[in-house]
């Protein structure tokens, strides 16, 4: 079991290089009331804000100095612990970060189809990911044919959803705006950096961003998934792709990098979310009677219970911290958490959002404020699933007043806090960032791509089925086994299609490549 206190003793500074860690996900519950995490922590390095410069205007240049930086080893020499290695002046900080280093920040996100024609290939990329649909080893060669089949079947329905929100996902535009805002915030904090966007399943793909990073000659890279809470199916999938890219490229192997696996506990993020909630509550006729309804994207239950995915624990702690911040502002509304967007026959994290909305209506709840807690950008899960489907369900269930908190987007407090997170986790100050984990009690340690994926790799093929014991009748077990039987039948049909080159999929033109 990895404890946060080990972080400060295992962090190693080699002129900015950090080795953090052990490489497994600690399986411990997140702190709950009354023992919450103390967010009023003091960071070892805190750059001065624009207002602390006595009126001096600092202009940010995206180019980097070609002059070699001075040896900065003295900043870390002679200190008995990382927390004592405090830079004493803004000039020291500027020298430390700029010099001749080229700092890059890689924002990772899911991606989304920008037009209706993009929907089917986007879905194919999504379901071709073994972190999304995990097939038994014997059937892995069917990953792409199965992804093709599912994407073609689901595309018409998905196109209807995207058509209802304007014909495509706004995720790329919003993420590009966040990247530019983050670049400007880092510039204002005297850390000139280039910020890149890498999407997992659509343009700009992660591979495209990496090529640009290489072209720009980046020497220090901070990898920042835009998922507040870590999950092996979101951040983990993106990091797995990065790992495979890094291993195949000598330049990337030698480039120092740091991963910020999750940041749901950060004070700026918590305050920004609390402010959005506080503002939306004012739109209700009786704000104090509104149920705050946190809706998070779901993941398969087996990921959490068997693979040690910290997603559920981080989500619950995140909500605790937001509600604590609201209480400081005199807001004591009740709240609840549910999980949305489940697919397939296996059991996902509960309670489910749609079922919870119906139950709340039956219990007499009249005012509901939906909070998309696992999303920082508007996309189809917020604009269509929550705003259309769940709103309609809520009104049918007896809820009279409905509201929804917007995604954070480029909210200034949020962006500024992301910039601080980047600065704190740069390899230059990595040991100090690691020591701060003791205060934050993060469930996922700061570390490299390879470290963060090691334990998941060792267990991902050993996950048992969600229901092990057979039960007869209309039970969850029977429903799960029926789903498995249906999946097996689909796999058998696909095997026949691939091996014979004949069948209804070929007749329909779905698998023309396998004639």
Order of helices and strands: HEEHEHHHEHEHHEHEHHEHEHEHHHHHH
Helix content: 40-55%
Head-to-tail CA distance between termini = 52 Å
**Strand line-up across the major sheet:** 4-3-5-6
Q: What characterizes the major β-sheet?
A: 4 strands, parallel
Note the beta-strand portion. 5-15%
Count of helical stretches: 19
Return Rg in Å: 24 Å
Uncertain runs: 1-91, 428-445, 455-477
How many β-strands, per DSSP? 10
Structural class: alpha/beta
List the main descriptive attributes of the protein structure presented here.
19 helices; 10% strand; 4-stranded parallel sheet; Ferrochelatase; disordered N terminus; 515 residues; 43% helix; ferrochelatase activity; alpha/beta
How would you explain this protein's 3D organization?
This protein is an alpha/beta fold. It is built from 19 helices and 10 strands. The strands form 3 sheets. A 4-stranded parallel beta sheet has the order 4-3-5-6, sandwiched between helices. Strand 9 (367-372), helix 13 and strand 10 form a beta-alpha-beta unit. Helix 9 crosses helix 11 (311-328). The radius of gyration is 24 Å and the shape is globular. The N and C termini lie far apart (52 Å). Residues 1-91, 428-445 and 455-477 have low confidence and may be disordered. It holds the Pfam family Ferrochelatase. Its EC number is 4.98.1.1. Belongs to the ferrochelatase family. Pathway: Porphyrin-containing compound metabolism; protoheme biosynthesis; protoheme from protoporphyrin-IX: step 1/1. One of its GO terms (cellular component) is mitochondrion.
